[in-house]
Structures are given as structure tokens and as C-alpha cells.
Amino acid sequence: MPARHVPNAAGVLVVAFLAVFPFVYTAADYDYIMHICITAFFYAILASSWSMLSGYAGQFSFGHMGFMGIGAYTTGLFCHYLYLSPEPTRLCIEYPIGDLYLVVVNPIGVTSTTLTQDCLRQALAAWDGSVAVTPMPVWLGIVLGTLMGGVFGLLIGLLVLRLRAAYLALFTLGFAEILRATISAEIEITRGQAGLELPHLFENGVTILGQTYDKTDKIPSYYAMFLLLLLCLGILTWLSRSKFGLCVRALREDQDAAAALGVNIIRYKILVFVITTMMAAAAGAVQAHYVGIITPNNLFLLQMSLVVAMAVIGGIENFAAAAVGAIIIEFALELLRNSFEIGGVTIDMTIWRLVFFGILLMLTLRFSRNGLIAPLIDHFTRGHVARETVAARTAADRAGASR
Amino acid sequence: MIRLEVRDLHKRFGGLHVLKGVTFSVNGPELIGLIGPNGAGKTTLTNVLDGAIKPNGGTVYLNGERIDQLQPYEVARVGLGRTFQVTRLFRRMTVLENLYVPALARGGHHRASETRSKATSVLEFLTMEHLRNEYAQALSGGQQKLLELGRLLMLDPDVVILDEPFAGVHPRLMEIIYEYIRRVNGDGKAIIIISHQMDSIFSLSQRLLVLDYGNLIADGPPDEVKRDPAVIEAYLGTEADESSGDASSGAVSSDNAPVGNASSGGVPPSNASPDEETAAS
């Protein structure tokens, strides 16, 4: 097999391994390992989409977790406040849709949940079990969350058209912080730091290949996040190999020169923002339903730093490397939690692991700017280039001499 | 028929009036040299023409379409391509990828095989086929210059502006650039060359435009422009006029043409030997 195909072959093997992993892994910590896998896939989506935005297109955005939050909160609010009822509650705002009523539950904030019932709970109490309301489908919330991420991506993309480098980074950082502060402040609607509870990804269980799983089983969520990761990586691969990939890389290299050569830099800047923010929002929506709660803390700068670090350590200019980096780092961070003793001194790894992680990040930036995984891929995919260049030059020289 | 019409173009940066009503037109596949001392407004004019900077006044039409308010990518698609004073390649993209960008970005339907074959022929012409898969940042300065010219061949514009194409280029590569200019011009494209290398400009151009402090002070055949007192004054200054005493009476020759400005190089006669050119400059 030619060396240049090694990364693709390795990728296929990794995907195949991850596809069967839930069925071959049987250790006692099964649920814990599955949870790490799901979280790792979540971060892999964020890191790879951020790599497309920042590494490929050169648009250094620090608002990626903000878009993740938009996806999560959109589906959260959608599932929390909207219901379908066969009967009008006459207490809530409601809109008739065919034989049903779309009920909009009134926001009651955090402390009042035990003191005051919202309008729907009051109606349900009055109906005394004679009427059943239907919550909104989770999949529709995820789709809406993804679309909302794209809408905000479009708006931010339009706003930052003229911003470059540090100004763009600061603008997007500001956006994420404003979003986090707004969600924290709007306690009445978002429940602030108390967090917004969401129905589980598979609230009523699911049957896969004849096997029924209930909502606490990890396997359905594992495959949901895994498939979303594969979908995102598939889209990114297709984009990177198309005219889009070529033009966004030209945009990163020199946007004035790209424009002078006919690249519609406005279109590509906005497109890359919309596509990558939709991916972040989709990941956020699925993760929020998996965890069952979303809080503004998920949007903290620290979380964004984690995604950036994962992409940088993997390889910022290669989204596949960024995804692999994210999975490895997530596993490393979780598995390094075990404290140990050296000469009677206890090393608390819950804290020190972050220090080691920081040192790894600094070393990567200092000695391997394109990460640790991407150069490995380059070694196989571009290792032949130098040899081919020399061979072609020699052949040309010989041809010239014989003439 | 190519027609670039620049009418009464003005550009101000704060209190600095960089272009002061520049007017000229390009009719057909002309090979034009644009010269002027440093700070004359040559690069600003290029930036206005390609849409990177919007003018404060005046109009630019290319083939009947007004382009002075268009975005640079739109100007490129209408048919005006340019290179930059300092080479601006996509450094972390391969040589081939650098060539594919303008071919694909211009829009329209492209067959991959056609784009590939066009890129290959461009690389053959530039004697760079062996470098096709190398990153642009790995190329030498001269090869980078050639690749930038190659990108223009892929864009295939009607009007080509070359900003300092000869600066810092090895004589062997210079021959390729000469050949490039003749070939592109022979294919029916209009070319505007901005350069401080007067020997190259005078030997190549059919017509010269001279900018000085934002004013177009001369426009004509090189031989006439050489003798234009305003051009002589722009390059030598009035004191030189007085000291030489014959500027008004005599033509600008290799002995007294812009020789005072070392950075501008000399204006050797077309038959001057390399030694004479060196002595003149």
C-alpha cells in the first residue's frame, strides 16, 4: 500500500473500531468509558469544526462555545416551553394547529417551581389525568437548535466581515461572553445557573437491531454522537476537497490576493461561519439532551480554551487531526484523574492533570505549530513530494541535455 | 476589443491627495509602462483599478462596465488581473493549488481535467512542472514571482497589471518574464507594467504613462516621453535642469534620463550595452 494511503487506512480502522467498541468492551467501568467516549465525540465535533473555521479559513473565532450554547438552549427552551395538547388549557398562550393546540408554557423562573405551578401544570392538575399533553420531539429541537446556530453564525459572519486576526478573536469572545451573561441573567426564562432541564435524547427508549434500550443506556447516545461526528467529518472532508476548501484556504493565506484572483471572500467568510457554527450548535443540542441539563457554565471561556487546545494539539490546519486530538485529550484528561503518591506526597491529579495539559499545549505551540497528529499525517501524505520534485527535476535536466 | 477607460480619478488619504484627476484609456492589446518616482501614486492607482481601494471621484470602465465601485473579486471576474509589488502567494498551499484558485474562483462551469491540463501547460511555460506539489513557501523568490504570474494566466483577464515584475529576479528568470509578457500580450491582452527598472520598461513598452505626485504628466510613446521636459523635471528636479543646462533643448538620453534617481534606475537607449547601462545607473 502506498504510504500516502496510510492515514486513510488508519482512519477507516479507527472508525471501524469505534463502531464496534460498545459491543466488545465489557469492563466494569463500561458506563464511565461510554460517557467519556460520548463526551470525546462531542469535543471532536467542536474541535474539527473550529479547525475548519480557524485553521482552514483563518477566521480565529473564540465564540464557538457560544454557538454550541445557542444550539443547546434553543432545543432546551423548545422542549421546555412548547407542548401539544388535544384540549385548550385556557391558562397558557396557545395556538390551534388542526385538532391540537400548541401550548406555550409561561416562564416561572427557578425558585417558584415548588411554590407556583406553571400554566400547563395547573391545567394538568385541573384535568386530573383526563388529558395528556405531548412534549415536542427532541429531534425537532435538535434541528431547530442547529438552524438557530446557523442563523447566529450568519449574523456574526456578517458583522465580522471587515475584522481580522485579534479584532475578530476579541469580537467573537465578546459575543460568547454576552451570550453567557444574558443566559445567566434571564433566570425567569433560562433558569440561569440552576440550569435548564431537557428531556433525554431517547426519552422513551429506542430499539436498535432488535435490542431495546431505555433512556439510561449509553449505547444509543454513543451512536447518536458518533454518527453526528462522522456526518460532520464527512461534510468537512467533502468541503475541504472542493472549490470551497481551496477558496477558504486562499482566504486564510491572503484575503486581498484571493479577492484579486476572483475569490468572493465575503461569500466564503459567511459560508464558513454558517457551516461551522451549525456543527457546533448541533453538537451542543445533542450533548445537552444526552446530559439532560444545560447551564451557562458550559459556555465559559475555559470550555472554549479546551476546544482550542484540543485542536491545536491535534493540528489546527487539519480537521481530522483536530478530531483525533480532541478524542485523545478528552480520554487523557479523564483517565489522569487518579491521584497517586510519591514519597508520601499525594499528587492530586484532578488539579495537576490540567497543569500537564497546559505544558503539553505550550510545548506543542513552541515546537510543533501544526500539532502532534497533523505532521504525522503529512509525513505519509506529503513524504513523497520532495523525492518526486528531485526526480522530475533530474528528468527535465536529462531531457534538456539530450536535446 | 479591450477598452479600459479611466476618467478623472481622484483618491485622498486624509489631507494627502494621492491621485489628482488621472485620466487615460487603454485601447486594445497595448503594452503600457507606468512609471513615476516613489510616492507618485502608481500602486494606489493599481489598488483603485482593481477595486481594493474606492476612489473619491472619477470613474473606471472596463469593456463598457463600470468597475470603480465593484469589489476586487468582481473586478477580477470582469477581466482585470494584477500582481503585487511584494509577491503575495498562498504560501501554505501547493504550486498547483495556487494555480487552481483563480481558475475555480472565477465562476462558471469547470471541468477538472481542463483546469488540470491548463495548470500543467502554465507550469511547463514557467519551467516549474517539477515543483507542482511543493508548497509555495518552499520556492525561491524568483520562482514565487513566476508563480504569481502563472496565477494570472489561470485567471485569464483582459487587462493585466504587473507591479514590479522584475524586482529582485535572476536574469534567467527575467527572460521567462519577458517571454511571459510578450506571450500574454500576443494573446490579445492589454498589459500595464509598473517598474523602476527603466531598461526593461523602455524595451518592452509601446506606450508610457508617467505619474508624478498623483498627476499624469505624460502619456505617449517611450521616445517622446523620454524627451518630455515635465518627465525630466519629475525625475531630475529643477536644480538638475539648471545645472545640466541642456534638458530643455536635448532629448532625454541614457546619459541624462532619470539617472539622478538611483532607485529608479536609468533609462538606457534601446541599443545600450549592459556595461553602458551599468555606467548610466
What does this molecule look like?
The complex is a heterodimer of chains A (403) and B (281). Chain A is an alpha+beta fold and 403 residues long. Chain A has 2 domains: 3-79 and 137-337 and 345-385, ABC transporter involved in vitamin B12 uptake, BtuC (Orthogonal Bundle); 87-132, no CATH class. Chain A is 66% helix and 8% strand. Chain A is built from 15 helices and 10 strands. In chain A, the strands form 4 sheets. Chain A has a 4-stranded antiparallel sheet. In chain A, strands 5-8 form a two-stranded antiparallel ribbon. Chain A has a two-stranded antiparallel sheet with strand order 6-7. In chain A, a hairpin with a 2-residue loop joins strand 9 (340-342) and strand 10 (345-347). In chain A, helix 3 packs parallel to helix 6 (165-185). Chain A is globular. Chain B contains 10 helices and 10 strands. Chain B has a 6-stranded mixed sheet, with helices on both faces. In chain B, strands 2-1-4-5 form a 4-stranded antiparallel sheet, covered by helices on one side. Chain B starts with a strand and ends with a helix. Chain B is globular and about 55 Å long. Chain B has 281 residues and is α/β, with parallel strands linked by helices. Chain B has 2 domains: 3-220, 3-Layer(aba) Sandwich (Rossmann fold); 221-281, no CATH class. In chain B, helix 4 (112-125) crosses helix 5 (141-155). The chains are: A alpha+beta (403), B alpha/beta (281). Chains A and B meet through helix 9, helix 10 and helix 15 of A and helix 2 and helix 3 of B.
Q: Brief overview, please?
A:
The complex is a heterodimer of chains A (403) and B (281). By secondary structure, chain A is α+β, with helices and mostly antiparallel strands.
